[in-house]
């Protein structure tokens, strides 16, 4: 065990839970409490409490004598593996989008109330702001954010909308719960969204969802263009189909059903 006694931020119970899970890696698929105690260096009463907690949470199962891992343990690494695979799968499709359209193609995920860039393929087009991987933008006012919000479970979306009204960033920004719910309902129905100068004057952005094997929207594929150069009609007919098709192809490779 590696606990630093002076570290007040260190959660020892979490360390103990992970130690019990990792014990199965080196000591076999079925272990008794005594074997778990020996493998982890924890006392038997402590191991018993940890093991029973993990059983209640669905990570362990027991026949009354021995404990074993359940498939739910796989979910612990799912987020990391999914994100890694996501960017690797997306990269060539995004490069093609940028090559075909001449505009930067971006991918974002939802983190709290923000859309966060996870990868971008830049073009030579110059925009007012240079956005990089890790940049956070408010989900309510951006196309990439709305695509992600639109797929939230109803209770999560209700909690998000309960925080409205949001700051008005331009004269066009939708800020009330009613406005945003209407926009998100339209996004759900269409399978894409276009935000016209709501985050920044003079900039139009549009996005399509990227889905995983569970048909869950895990990211948004997006593009931003200058409003004085590209009309909404031209975006609909020339650029949006390219972005949407790329999102579908990425989703297919992630195992999305029906893509």
Automatic annotation (TrEMBL):
Q: What's a single GO BP term from this record? A: positive regulation of DNA-templated transcription
Domain IclR-ED span(s) in chain numbering: 72-256
Q: Identify the PROSITE patterns for this entry.
A: HTH_ICLR (PS51077), ICLR_ED (PS51078)
One Pfam family this chain carries? HTH_IclR
Molecular function terms in GO for this entry? DNA binding; DNA-binding transcription factor activity
Domain HTH iclR-type spans what residues?
11-71
Question: What are the alphabetically sorted keywords of the record?
Answer: DNA-binding, Glycerol metabolism, Transcription, Transcription regulation
* Function noted in UniProt: May be an activator protein for the gylABX operon.
Q: What is this protein called?
A: Glycerol operon regulatory protein
């Amino acid at each position: 065990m590696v606990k630093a006694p002076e570290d007040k931020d260190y959660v020892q119970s979490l360390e103990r839970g992970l130690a019990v899970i990792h014990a199965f890696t080196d000591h076999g698929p079925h272990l008794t409490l005594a074997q778990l105690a020996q493998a982890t260096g924890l006392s038997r009463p402590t191991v018993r409490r940890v093991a029973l907690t993990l059983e209640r949470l669905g990570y362990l199962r027991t026949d009354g004598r021995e404990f074993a891992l359940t498939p739910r343990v796989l979910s612990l690494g799912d987020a990391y593996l999914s994100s890694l695979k996501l960017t690797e799968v997306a990269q060539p499709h995004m490069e093609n989008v940028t090559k075909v359209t001449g505009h930067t193609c971006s991918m974002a995920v939802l983190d709290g109330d923000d859309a966060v860039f996870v990868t971008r393929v830049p073009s030579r087009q110059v925009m007012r702001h240079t956005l990089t991987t890790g940049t956070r933008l408010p989900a309510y006012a951006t196309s990439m954010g709305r695509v992600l919000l639109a797929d939230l479970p109803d209770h999560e979306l209700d909690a998000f909308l309960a925080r409205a009204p949001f700051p008005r960033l331009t004269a066009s920004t939708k800020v009330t719960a009613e406005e945003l719910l209407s926009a998100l309902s339209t996004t759900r129905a269409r399978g894409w969204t276009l935000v016209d100068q709501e985050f920044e004057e003079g900039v139009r952005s549009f996005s399509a969802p990227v889905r995983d094997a569970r048909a869950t929207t895990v990211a948004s594929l997006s593009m931003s263009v200058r409003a004085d150069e590209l009309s909404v009609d031209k975006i609909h007919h020339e650029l949006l189909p390219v972005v949407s098709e790329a999102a579908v192809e990425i989703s297919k490779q992630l195992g999305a059903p029906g893509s």
